Amino acid sequence: MASWGPTSKLLAEYFMVDERTLERRIKAHYGITVGEFIAQRVAPRKFKLLAVSFEEAVEHRNPTMLIFLLKNYHNFSDRREIKQEIRQTEGQEIVKVVLPGQVPEEVEKLEQIADKTLTAKQKGKLA
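Given the sequence above, the corresponding C-alpha coordinates read:
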Protein backbone atom coordinates (compact mmCIF):
# COMPACT_ATOMS: atom_id res chain seq x y z
CA MET A 1 0.00 0.00 0.00
CA ALA A 2 2.85 2.43 0.77
CA SER A 3 4.05 2.03 -2.82
CA TRP A 4 0.96 3.90 -4.03
CA GLY A 5 2.28 7.09 -2.45
CA PRO A 6 -0.31 7.79 0.27
CA THR A 7 0.20 10.39 2.97
CA SER A 8 1.10 9.38 6.51
CA LYS A 9 -2.38 10.54 7.55
CA LEU A 10 -4.04 8.20 5.06
CA LEU A 11 -1.83 5.27 6.16
CA ALA A 12 -2.65 5.96 9.80
CA GLU A 13 -6.37 6.04 9.02
CA TYR A 14 -6.10 2.80 7.04
CA PHE A 15 -4.39 1.02 9.94
CA MET A 16 -6.68 2.78 12.43
CA VAL A 17 -3.82 4.24 14.46
CA ASP A 18 -2.66 7.73 15.32
CA GLU A 19 -0.09 9.31 12.97
CA ARG A 20 2.41 9.55 15.83
CA THR A 21 1.97 5.83 16.53
CA LEU A 22 2.61 5.05 12.86
CA GLU A 23 5.70 7.28 12.90
CA ARG A 24 7.07 5.59 16.06
CA ARG A 25 6.44 2.06 14.75
CA ILE A 26 8.09 2.71 11.40
CA LYS A 27 11.02 4.47 13.10
CA ALA A 28 11.47 1.56 15.52
CA HIS A 29 11.13 -1.19 12.89
CA TYR A 30 12.86 0.40 9.86
CA GLY A 31 14.90 3.20 11.43
CA ILE A 32 13.48 5.84 9.08
CA THR A 33 10.63 8.36 9.03
CA VAL A 34 7.21 7.69 7.50
CA GLY A 35 8.08 10.08 4.65
CA GLU A 36 11.29 8.18 3.88
CA PHE A 37 9.44 4.87 4.17
CA ILE A 38 6.82 5.96 1.64
CA ALA A 39 9.43 7.51 -0.69
CA GLN A 40 11.44 4.27 -0.77
CA ARG A 41 8.38 2.32 -1.79
CA VAL A 42 7.08 4.88 -4.30
CA ALA A 43 10.36 5.30 -6.26
CA PRO A 44 10.35 1.83 -7.92
CA ARG A 45 6.71 2.25 -8.96
CA LYS A 46 7.42 5.71 -10.42
CA PHE A 47 10.41 4.33 -12.31
CA LYS A 48 8.34 1.46 -13.70
CA LEU A 49 5.58 3.85 -14.80
CA LEU A 50 8.16 6.06 -16.51
CA ALA A 51 9.68 3.03 -18.28
CA VAL A 52 6.25 1.85 -19.48
CA SER A 53 5.40 5.39 -20.61
CA PHE A 54 8.65 5.66 -22.54
CA GLU A 55 8.03 2.31 -24.21
CA GLU A 56 4.52 3.39 -25.15
CA ALA A 57 5.79 6.68 -26.57
CA VAL A 58 8.76 5.33 -28.52
CA GLU A 59 8.20 1.69 -29.39
CA HIS A 60 4.44 1.93 -29.89
CA ARG A 61 4.74 5.38 -31.49
CA ASN A 62 2.16 7.03 -29.26
CA PRO A 63 2.44 10.78 -29.98
CA THR A 64 0.26 11.76 -27.01
CA MET A 65 2.54 9.93 -24.58
CA LEU A 66 5.64 11.34 -26.27
CA ILE A 67 4.31 14.88 -25.92
CA PHE A 68 3.43 14.23 -22.26
CA LEU A 69 6.94 12.95 -21.49
CA LEU A 70 8.64 15.81 -23.33
CA LYS A 71 6.55 18.41 -21.52
CA ASN A 72 6.87 16.88 -18.06
CA TYR A 73 10.45 15.64 -18.09
CA HIS A 74 12.24 17.87 -20.60
CA ASN A 75 10.59 21.31 -20.16
CA PHE A 76 9.04 21.35 -23.63
CA SER A 77 6.01 23.56 -24.09
CA ASP A 78 3.50 24.42 -26.76
CA ARG A 79 4.43 28.07 -26.56
CA ARG A 80 8.03 29.26 -26.60
CA GLU A 81 8.48 32.19 -24.29
CA ILE A 82 11.71 34.00 -24.91
CA LYS A 83 13.29 36.35 -22.44
CA GLN A 84 15.45 38.99 -24.09
CA GLU A 85 17.83 41.47 -22.48
CA ILE A 86 19.73 44.22 -24.27
CA ARG A 87 22.85 45.82 -22.82
CA GLN A 88 25.52 48.20 -24.04
CA THR A 89 29.20 47.16 -23.94
CA GLU A 90 31.88 49.48 -25.31
CA GLY A 91 29.44 51.03 -27.74
CA GLN A 92 28.19 47.63 -28.94
CA GLU A 93 24.66 46.47 -28.32
CA ILE A 94 24.54 42.96 -26.84
CA VAL A 95 21.29 40.98 -27.04
CA LYS A 96 20.87 38.12 -24.57
CA VAL A 97 18.14 35.59 -25.30
CA VAL A 98 17.17 32.96 -22.74
CA LEU A 99 14.96 30.08 -23.83
CA PRO A 100 12.72 28.17 -21.41
CA GLY A 101 14.47 25.23 -19.84
CA GLN A 102 17.97 26.67 -20.18
CA VAL A 103 19.96 26.29 -17.01
CA PRO A 104 22.10 29.20 -15.75
CA GLU A 105 25.33 27.33 -16.56
CA GLU A 106 24.32 27.04 -20.23
CA VAL A 107 23.45 30.72 -20.36
CA GLU A 108 26.78 31.63 -18.75
CA LYS A 109 28.75 29.54 -21.27
CA LEU A 110 26.89 31.18 -24.16
CA GLU A 111 27.64 34.61 -22.70
CA GLN A 112 31.35 33.75 -22.44
CA ILE A 113 31.41 32.66 -26.08
CA ALA A 114 29.62 35.85 -27.12
CA ASP A 115 32.04 37.99 -25.10
CA LYS A 116 35.08 36.25 -26.67
CA THR A 117 33.59 36.70 -30.13
CA LEU A 118 32.92 40.37 -29.49
CA THR A 119 36.43 40.91 -28.10
CA ALA A 120 38.01 39.15 -31.07
CA LYS A 121 35.88 41.18 -33.49
CA GLN A 122 36.87 44.42 -31.77
CA LYS A 123 40.54 43.50 -32.11
CA GLY A 124 40.04 42.92 -35.83
CA LYS A 125 40.47 39.14 -35.70
CA LEU A 126 37.05 38.53 -37.22
CA ALA A 127 35.64 40.15 -40.32
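The chain has a mean pLDDT of 77. Try to locate this feature in the C-alpha coordinate string yourself.
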